[in-house]
Amino acid sequence: MSFTLHGISVSQGIAIGRAYLIAPAALEVAHYLVEPNNVEAEVIRFGVAQQTVYDELVALRAELPPDAPNEMGAFLNVHILILHDELLVKEVIKLIRTRRYNAEWALTEQLECLAKHFDAIHDEYLRERKADLEQVVERVLKALAGLPATVVINNTMKRDTDEMIVVAHDIAPADMLKFKTQIFRGFVTDLGGRTSHTAIVARSLSIPAAVGMQQASLLIRQDDMIIIDGDCGVVIVDPAPIVLEEYACRQSKKLLEKRKLQRLKFSPAKTICGTKIDLLANIELPDDARAALDAGAVGVGLFRTEFLFMNPHGDLLEEEQQFNAYRYVVQTMNGFPVTIRTIDVGSDKSINSRNEFEVAPNPALGLRAIRWSLSEPQMFLTQLRSILRASVFGPVKILVPMLAHACEIDQTLALIAQAKQQLDDAGLEYDPHILVGAMIEIPAAVIALPLFLKRFDFLSIGTNDLIQYTLAIDRADNAVAHLYNPLHPAILRLISMTLYATRQAGIPVSVCGEMAGDPTLTKLLLGMGLTEFSMHPSQLLLVKQEVLRTQLKSLGKPVEDILASYKPEEVQAALDRLMQA
Ligand code: PEP
Ligand code: MG
């Protein structure tokens, strides 16, 4: 019987194949009390299992194939850190010693306790790190049981003709590597969100995936024929022949389009009328710089440095570590500009408070981004010095997130001057003319734009937060996700006002929120006057294709119509006209 499941689209494209079910992640474990004189032996048994897993992870990391996604090494490092995390190890040993639980029981008990803390975290990215903890615990449980560490692919399942789709409750990042073979065409998981590791890896492998499918691994049976429509996060199980045919047709069209798109990699991004458009990349980790270059980006428009600090301990990186990370990106980009955004965390992310899981009453409105940096001036100065020092190796710009107040701007600029002075005193080099810019992502910043125009060298519009704060919609809350609308007239007006005012003032401006990477909005942004876009590298060629099809003077009327409309259907109709222009 055919049925359809709906989840979250995390990696686009269409995959058609037979279901390959992976057993549920959680293992059944024995619960028993250890004899008092065997307690230390149980602690040792746990230690041996921990060492076995450590050896496995280190070996996996060493054996990463050259074409493995960049994130994989980072994920394995995270798992190694979790494996030795005091919160896990100390407490497990304590439970064995004080309550005489067997190692498996102690481990699952502590997992449950930590999982509750994770569930209370508001930040989507950090909340999803619970999956990493579960995966590490599962490995230790397997080691305690003497089972093989990773999923074993059953070769008898191999078919020559049918392509397979992995269906699982959840997939460990390390196990994703085992699936990087020709036979697997997509991933479907019960758990996960847009920033879960399965999603991140699937995206970087360009494999269609749908996550957050709730009960998929229970409802789908081994060998069921399934279709993943990665564009809308839908899985069709046992499709009718006519549906299958339709999707097969769409799939080959898409593959063809993708191949054709690669030809654009070396074409300069210019409109038909010859206006040069700069397409830059958003990156999260230093290794992403390679993907940026591979996609043909002419620079990094947004380096979200907070990802460097997202380790299980929430440790802040020392100046040298930060400097090395920034320098690596600058050198990799080989002369292209690199815009380094100062840390954008909130109190919900607790990166400076070890082992605490405090949640601010309203984290998105709390001590976030520059507010947090200004409340931790020593940490901020360390980051500023590291960025400044990296500027010796190529063009670097500093970008400051979430500014709204004149006093914040003054304090930020004063701290940048202080960081420069500290480097002068220490005899360390930096680019004295480094450009400093501000993110425009709070409606107040747009309304009071002159505050910014006089003090900054460039601006960058963060549409993700601009939408969140203008429409009062928590961007991490699924319950209001349907109201998160980039085409809301208020959003379009705020963007247009910013582009107009910066043009008048002669200040360069870019858009670095998700809107910049959405090809259906490229002409709209071009028509509003945008000439610099920064986006996820995977979107770059799609956006370039739109740029190459654009005749700027034909955009004026439809863009005017869009900006004059208040009704969603009128906006959409004008946008459709614009897409044809
Ligand atoms: C934005 O808000 O649009 C942005 C680019 O920053 P982030 O998504 O990191 O908040
Ligand atoms: Mg933002």
Describe this structure in words.
- The longest helix has 24 residues, at 39-62.
- This protein has two domains: 1-243, PtsI, HPr-binding domain (Enzyme I, Chain A, domain 2); 270-552, Phosphoenolpyruvate-binding domains (TIM Barrel, Alpha-Beta Barrel).
- Mean pLDDT is 86; it is low at 150-162 and 352-357.
- The chain has helices at 39-62, 70-83, 86-99, 103-119, 124-127, 130-145, 173-178, 197-205, 216-219, 241-262, 288-294, 319-332, 369-375, 377-390, 406-426, 443-447, 450-453, 463-471, 489-505, 522-527, 540-548, 556-564, 568-580, and strands at residues 3-6, 8-11, 14-21, 164-168, 184-189, 209-211, 225-229, 234-237, 278-283, 300-304, 338-341, 396-400, 435-440, 458-461, 509-511, 532-535.
- The chain has 581 residues and is an alpha/beta fold.
- Helix 8 links the parallel strand 5 and strand 6 (209-211).
- It has 23 helices and 16 strands.
- The site of phosphoenolpyruvate (PEP) has 10 residues, from strand 10 and helix 18.
Low-confidence segments = 150-162, 352-357
Largest sheet, in brief, is: 8 strands, mixed
Q: Please indicate the count of domains.
A: 2
The CATH H-level homologous superfamily of the largest domain: Phosphoenolpyruvate-binding domains
**How many strand segments?**
16
Radius of gyration: 25 Å
Number of helices: 23
- Write out the distinct hetero groups bound to the structure: phosphoenolpyruvate, magnesium ion
C-alpha end-to-end distance: 44 Å
Q: Structural class of the secondary elements? A: alpha/beta
Q: Name the CATH architecture of the largest domain.
A: Alpha-Beta Barrel
In the CATH hierarchy, what is the class of the largest domain?
Alpha Beta
Shape label: globular
CATH T-level topology of the largest domain? TIM Barrel
> How much helical structure, as a percent, in the residues?
40-55%
Strand content: 5-15%
Output the strand order for the largest sheet. 1-8-7-3-4-5-6-2
Average the pLDDT over all residues and give the rounded result: 86
